[in-house]
Each structure stands twice: as structure tokens, then as C-alpha cells.
Amino acid sequence: MAVSGAPCCSGRRFFSKTLTDVERGIYIDSWSISSDDLGVGEGWSIDKCRLYGGRSDGIDVITVNNGKLSYVVVPTRGMGIWRGEYKGAFLGWDSPVKELVHPHYVNLEARDGLGWLDGFSEWVVRCGLASFGSPGLDIIRDNTGREKKVLLNLHGRIANIPASFVRVKIGLEQPFELGVEGVVLERAMFGSDLKLATSVTTTPGSNSVRISDTIENLRGVQDEMQILYHCNYGNPFLEDGARLIAPIRRVAPCNPTAAQGIDRFDVFGPPESGFVEQVYFIELLAGSEGITKVALASRDETRAVSVSFSLEELPCFTLWKNTAALEDGYVTGLEPGTSFPNPKPFERERNRVVKLKPKEKYHSEVTLSVHLGKEEVLAVSREIEKIRGKTKPVVFKKSVGDFSPV
Fold first, then answer.
1. Which of 30, 193, 246, 367 has its CA 20 to 30 A from that of 395?
2. Using CA atoms, how far apart are residues 295 and 265, in angstroms rounded to an integer?
3. Which of 220, 172, 383 is nearest to 297 (CA)?
4. Is residue 3, in this structure, part of any structural domain at all?
5. What would the pLDDT profile of 3-33 be if each residue is shown by its tens digit?
6. With 0-12 CB in 10 A as exposed, 13-18 as middle and 19+ as buried, what is 242?
7. In terms of residue numbers, what domain contains 363?
8. pLDDT under 70 in the chain at which residues?
9. What is the CATH number of the domain that holds 176?
10. pLDDT (tens digit per residue) in 157-201
């Protein structure tokens, strides 16, 4: 949703600590703070450190622990979230890429634009900002004014750009919000100049983390923008018999391979050697305030994770099923976005690429939650069923032109 200015200040008192500010020459290698230090809330802590050795050398990580939920924000990798834990339940997935990989070691154009996968291991990673989706050719106008074909790599650049500004911000009044804020700049001469200002927040004892982003076009001319939140889950939430719970209006497979599994698109199988990923493009329903929610529930419905977001901000939802062998990355992706992850020219033709005027801003937000125990899982399931109402989803057996190339 395009906005004309930044959100108003709440007026609440807060503590803040700048850890990185490139413009002012500030960089703090290691730092920590806790509820005992500030005397607000209970049982929470925030720790910042730098990793050394191997392909992780030089990566900054900030671990936020609210007392029940913990997660690792990675400023060096576009302010993504590497992994988390809630009451002992692991959040994220076991990628073949075991370590955090510094962007220095990721060649985005390798393997015909698939190099992004060389560093892919996060629980939550943004795709964008100038483009995301399948790698492919696009036509741009170069610095001489001529049209030129260029390769757009898989899922864009933002996940491999270090933040130029990072600070921790802690509320000194109820509910004692714990935030990590950052600014990531995706820019080039004669190219896009997009500013991502993000806030990743939770509260002590909460089962949720909220990612709130504002993207601004810093150019003097109109430019395009795309963003998708690649939220990835493996064990213990993904398992044989786990299922997607979502208020679906329409769903279609993205290609013939996905069409083979359309009858069970919302049910997951066990790890399977040689499994070929299946991707489904979904149009969701929203509640009365425009907010929708999807969940991944375990087979016995004692564990679930959910993702909530605004359909006005993120109208397209993608389900990525990759139930391959454990060694090859047993994972599913719950992915709200401004468009579907098709090649950008296809999405542009269907008016799903955001156009930002000079200095115009676009706001998007997702909330990720964890639900443990049958009562909590039943509650989130009922919440989603309420959004669905009496609507029966339209399930296309084959790819359709509204969603993907046929």
C-alpha cells in the first residue's frame, strides 16, 4: 500500500542503541542488553556479535530472546531472520547451506541466475526489491537511452545487501516492545535506488514476531518495486500429513509438475528422495479489516505456525512445497508478496508490479506466530475458517494465464 509519509510517533519512551551507521562512521562489534540491565519486562535479552571464519566471516547477527521466543536477525544479509525457537520448537529449516553465507561469496548471476541459492538458509528472507521471481531476461533503458536486455537473477538482490544503519530500540513502557531496526539500500548508478527501512519487533513472552517494512523510491523518476516474504518451515511443523490451512478463493499450479499434485496441494508428504518442487499460486480471502492469515499445522494438530498480513499490501500468496530428502532441504515456503514469483515481464503485463513515484513509499507488514497445543491450533484454525466463511475455493487443475505462463 503506497503511503505519503512515515508513521506518526507513538510518544512512548524508549531506549535505543545504534550499532551501525555508515554515514556517521559508527560500528559496534559486540553488544548486549537484557531486562536486568534496563529494569523493564522480564526474562528478555538482545545480543549482537560478529561471526568469524569460513563463508560466515564478517557477518553480523543480532539474537533477540523475549523469554519464550528467540530469533536471529542478520543485518549483513538484508535484515533477514536466520532461524528461531519457541518453547523448544525450532523455527526455520535445515538447508543444505548449513552456515550463514556472507554476500561476498554469493554470485547472483551464477548458474544462469540461480546463484541466490548459494546463500539460501533463512527462516525468513525478503525477495526483491527491484525484482524477484524466476530468473529471466528483462528489457531496460541504459545510460545512453537505448533499450537493452538484462538477466534478472532469482529473487533479486536485497537479501545479499548489508544494512547501512542498524539500531536496537526497546520500549520503556508496556508492552516493552523489543525492536531491531535497519536500513538497506538497493542502488546503482543509472539503475534503481530503493531504500528499505525495516523494524523487526516482538514483546516479552510473546509467541509472535512482526516485520514492518517501508520501501521508498529515492530516484527522481518513477521506478518499479516488488517484494515477497519467503517464510520457510521444516521439522517439527512440516511432516508427513501436515497441512496448509488458508482462506482460499482460487488456487492454481504454476506448471505441469505442480499440476500432478493439485489434488493434495494443501497436504504435505514425508521426505522423498528426488522430489521435484511444486509451487501453487493462491488468491486469498481477507477478514473485515483486510487482514488474512495462513497456517501450517502438524498432522496431529498439536503444533502450528501462522503468517498474517494485509491483502491490500501483499495481495498474492505462493505456496512452495519442497518435500525432498532431509539432506536436500525438506521445507515448505509460505510466501506473501506484491506479485507471484514469475519472471518480472509476465507480472508487469498483469499490472502486479508496483510503480513508485519519486520519493513515494510503500508499506508492507507480516506477523509470524507459533501455536503449541491442540487448543491454540484449534483457535487459529477457527480464526482462518471465520475468514473463509462459506466460500468454496476454486481449484484449477492446470496452470491458468491469470497466475502463471501457460
1. 367
2. 14
3. 383
4. no
5. 333 333 456 899 999 999 999 999 999 999 9
6. buried
7. 12-395
8. 1-11
9. 2.70.98.10
10. 999 999 999 999 999 999 999 999 999 999 999 999 999 999 999
Q: Please state, in angstroms and rounded to a whole number, the distance separating the CA atoms of residues 75 and 348.
A: 30
Q: Which three cell numbers stand for residue 232?
A: 520457510
Read off the C-alpha cell for 391: 466460500
Q: How far apart are CA 356 and CA 321, in angstroms?
A: 32
Entry pTM: 0.95
Q: Which amino acid is at 131?
A: S
Decide if 63 is inside a domain: yes
The CA distance from 183 to 62, in Å, is 15
Cβ atoms of residues 114 and 120 within 8 Å? no
Which residues are bridge partners to 243 per DSSP?
267, 297
CB atoms within 10 A of CB 234: 22
Asked, for residue 2, whether it belongs to a domain, the answer is: no
Give the count of domains, the chain.
1
Position 307 in a domain: yes
